[in-house]
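Q: A reviewer asked whether we had any structural model of the full assembly, not just the individual parts. We don't, so I'm hoping you can provide one. Inputs are below.
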Amino acid sequence: MNLNINLNRVVTYITLKHAMESSRLIRLGALFFAGLCALMFLLSGVKDDSLPEDLGGVYGFGILIVAVIVIGRHTFNEFKNPLTSMGWLTLPASTEEKWLANFIVSFFMAPIIYIIAVTLGSVVVKIIHVSLGWYTGFEIFNPLSASGFDLLTSYWTIHPIFFFGAIYFNKSSVMKMSAMMAIVIVGLLIYTAWVGWLLIPDQFSNGFSMQNGDNELHNSMMEDDFNPLQWLPSWSKFGFHALFYGSFLYFWVLSYLRLKEVEV
Amino acid sequence: MVTIDSLSFAYSSGIKRTQSVFNNLSMNIQQGRSVGILGANGVGKSTLLRLIAGTLTPAFASNTGTLRVLNHAPRDRALSLMQQMFIVPEAFELPDISGHRYASQLSSFYPLFDQPLFSSLLERFELDRQNILSEMSFGQKKKFLVAFALATRCPLILMDEPTNGMDIPSKSAFRDAVIQTQTDNQTILISTHQVRDLESIIDSVVLMNNAQSTWVDLNRLTESISQIQGESQDDVLYSESRLGTQVSLVAAALNNHIDIDLELLFNAFHYNSDGLLAAIESSSQQEESA
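A: Here is a predicted structure for the entire assembly that you could use as a starting point for your response.
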């Protein structure tokens, strides 16, 4: 494959795309930041002894919203509007550069901007709390903490599949890809249960898994750091990781191939 | 510049059904030409431009068919081709930013972009570059994009119904702008069904209908057909009444002819394409044999 990538043109493409939508993006960004701050302010004041970790769910929910907006609605959107797609398709930049521009924005810029927004939002909430003298236990979010890294990794985990959906579907791509993934996961669970039933029918017929409190499997699942890979042999752990990260590459390559096929 | 051989195209409208637009289309458009693509609604003028722009995938009636634009297969969307081509679509949307910002951002992708020319064209079209593009009228947006297209200095400029939405003075300004800015190595393809808007701009036409299409050099058209007023003893290809006077196209090179107007030619092709094409071809065959 002959890749034609000029990073300067990629940056220019990103700048152009965002300049074209600057008014909408500023409005959307301001609205999102205000909503995030309001949610953090309300939830942090619910109880006096609440810790910053209690807002982990809010931050996690926020990054999911970012994924829906950025990957679902903003990524590759220049090729979806029939009134603008002709100009973008014939713009002098290679398909690789157009793909990379969308990748950089959705994979790196969006979650990093979100984490910066969460940090700034927590500063704003802290200032409000302190100035009003309501609650002083609220801590400013540290973007370099484990929580910050968790946010990034959770976003990056869902990125490939949503990214492919963004170019494959014209509308409601996140919803369609989520539904597809749900079907695949439910199918895999049913298949796993069926295989388990074939291999260890006694355990299944006794209904051990969720009812027997002494059972090792059940106890392990109840632990916070439950890791189902612990039972697998090392070679199959490697296979699992290869499959997991390989699927990232698979969906990214698929999205590139799909972009080459886009027509007006 | 643009070479088309045995090109076919059909839109999919279901799993198996296809809606054929044209079959076995062949033509060769040379550098420096101003070509009008004329045809009735639905014959595939816009589709042809999209195929040339590389936004649709061509099919070929024979295995040896080709579509080459500036020595590239346009569907590959090669960067070097895209830098040499600009298309003004029939329907488009401009962003919610000023014309100045739009041009400064987009022009960096076109290595030959001529900023002074762009400024003079905006002046000619009576447009203020500080205005927000999305707030402009449709005609103003068209003029803005046409000005940008001409300022790119691309060797190939495609325009799909560029005069739609333009008022009469703007159409005149459009014609002047095209005539004055086109260089010898620049080819302009304009698709339209408003043929009068192209008079004085184009030097050749591609006449298209559902069955066939042909490229006609307007400078040599009078060697095979003539436009006359009043009754004629010659082989009349098409005739219509204008303000009580009969105007006809005849299959003969007459000395007392008047300039062939594009609308009459368009109608002659629409109603008697076989006769018109036969007249043009027989003339060129006679010339070759001589």
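A: Points you may want to mention in the reply: Chain A touches chain B through 27 residues (CB under 8 Å). The two ends of chain A are 25 Å apart (CA to CA).
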